[in-house]
Write a structure and sequence with these properties.
Blueprint: H1 5-21, E1 24-29, H2 35-47, E2 51-55, H3 57-65, E3 81-86, H4 91-103, E4 109-115, E5 118-120, H5 125-130, H6 135-176
């Protein structure tokens, strides 16, 4: 059933809101996936906290026209297109990669990834993006690096103190003899 103008306008606005809200977008070609495979993929995205939806290209391009700075994505809204919206640059890539490996499929295929203004559309982009660390992982590493010097100082202070105590104990034992 065809949608009326008001319904289309509402869809354009919803797509536009998501395209504006998220600074990380993955456009994929899902052609050839069965309904069961599509549902499995959607479930995996949902578990990873990634919003994934099939879009009508015409409506998505109209939504892009209203958003400043993302017009470079317009050319990628051709053919079957689904968009993964994420806060983490690596999560969509990992979901896609795991799905492709576990299901032994060639689709979904990454058309382009938009990561905070940068386009990634080469064939190796999916592997590169999947290897990125999440914000939580980076914060953990930074905290570890910040704590490491303090631990080194404490260890450095304890080491000579223990050595000095050992020497004094040996000297006192020598005096007792």
């Amino acid at each position: 059933m065809s949608k009326n103008r008001a319904q289309k306008e509402e869809i354009i606005e919803q797509i536009g809101d998501k395209l504006s809200e998220y600074s990380i977008l993955y456009l994929t070609n899902f052609e050839g996936l069965t309904v069961a495979q599509s549902n499995e993929l959607r479930g995996r995205f949902r578990e990873a906290g990634v919003d994934y939806q099939v879009t009508k290209n015409t409506l998505a391009r109209l939504a892009l026209d209203r958003i400043e700075g993302k017009d470079a994505l317009e050319e990628f809204f051709a053919g079957p297109t689904a968009v993964a919206f994420s806060e983490d640059p690596a999560k969509p890539a990992r979901v896609i990669q795991d799905f492709l490996d576990e299901e032994d499929l060639e689709r979904p295929e990454l058309k382009v990834a938009w990561i905070e203004g940068e386009l990634y559309d080469d064939p190796e982009a999916l592997d590169t993006l999947a290897d990125l660390k999440s914000r939580e992982e980076l914060i953990g590493e930074i905290v570890g690096l910040l704590l490491a010097p303090a631990q080194n100082v404490v260890g450095g202070l304890q080491g000579p103190g223990q050595t000095l105590a050992g020497i004094l104990e040996t000297l006192s034992e020598d005096d007792d003899e």
